[in-house]
What does this fold into?
Amino acid sequence: MLNVALGGVTSLLAIPVIISIVGAPTWGSLAVAQAIGAIYAVGVGFGWGIIGPAQVAGLSASARGQFFKDSLVSRSLLFACALPAYVVTVLLVLGARSDIGAFLVGGVSTVVVAVGSGWFFVGEAQPARLLFNESLPRALGTIAGAALLFVSHSLLVFVAVQLLGILISIWMTTRSINTRHREGVLNRSVRDGFRRLKDSYASMVTAGTAALYVNVPLIVVSAAVPLATPIYAAAEKIQRFALLAMTPFTQVVQGYIPNADDTAGMRGRINRSVVIAFGCGAALAVGLGALLPWVAQLMTAGKVAVPFTLSIPMGLTTGLIVISGVTGLAALVALGKQRTVAISTVAGACVGLPLTVILGLSVGVEGIAWAVTISEVLVLAIQLLALARALPATGRR
It folds into this structure.
């Protein structure tokens, strides 16, 4: 958890520095490029960040070296394919402008992150190596970039140094893993590299769908309501930091539910966890809805004002995500209902994505936020219905 907190804190502290020097509109455009990069990063990572840790944990030490080398080749090939498409997408969305080079480099950072292999350390249960080889270089890159931004007043310098920190982290993780797992050969075959992807399609589809309806709203804002881009970007950043703070709760519940002594015990743990999740989600929704405008003023050095008409749906969405993290990733997965979780995510995206465009064009930035809220309501409703059907069956076993 320390590695997640380190990355979150450094990113949070960098935001007011960036905004105070280059301005809120420029920072908002950078956030759009990063959102586009995050979508392509899912295709590059291709599910390894989701299923990779469990696969590593299930392999013998002698088999892990070959598994890592194979995944590294596949992810490198996917990055080479994604990079040109990413560049074209950013140019189409943001257009050619004076800072487009900085936006492209800043977004590339979010794409190349998927080539990193921190998930391998998670599967090995090596948090110290994850912190030293991945989290620390990335954090130092952000800190150094922010310091140089003060001197140069160049956004390109900031994102270039930040990208350098990420590239160093990739080199360090690769070196650490290869040093300890020398077995296996580096198969550079393009055909084999793509053939290996077939086992990760389901995870990639789930992660890709989630990435779409998490990142597309900001992209739609930049196209439909460009002046509101920094406002929505600030609100979304705060929302993500709030969810980051709730990560330990979700992780604890994910371990708590399946470790019950029997199925009856699991039923009780699910019920208790869902009740607690609703309490935490409701408190977070109210708190974030009320405090988000003030936090945005603080985070952006008073340069961005988030209205309550935006903070209220953003708060509700955050609370819903926390609840569905328990009903879906913890409860339904423990009951073997992974397919239902995937269906709920896809259903939310199918409703949320077109609704984002419709409400964005007709209502504005607040409409986009409510579209995301509605999609999360649908996701949670599907998961609760599935739980209601599954729990009685669990109790009869």
Observations:
- Residues 263-299 form the longest helix (37 residues).
- The mean pLDDT is 87.
- Residues 13 and 186 are 40 Å apart (CA to CA).
- Residues 2-204 form one domain.
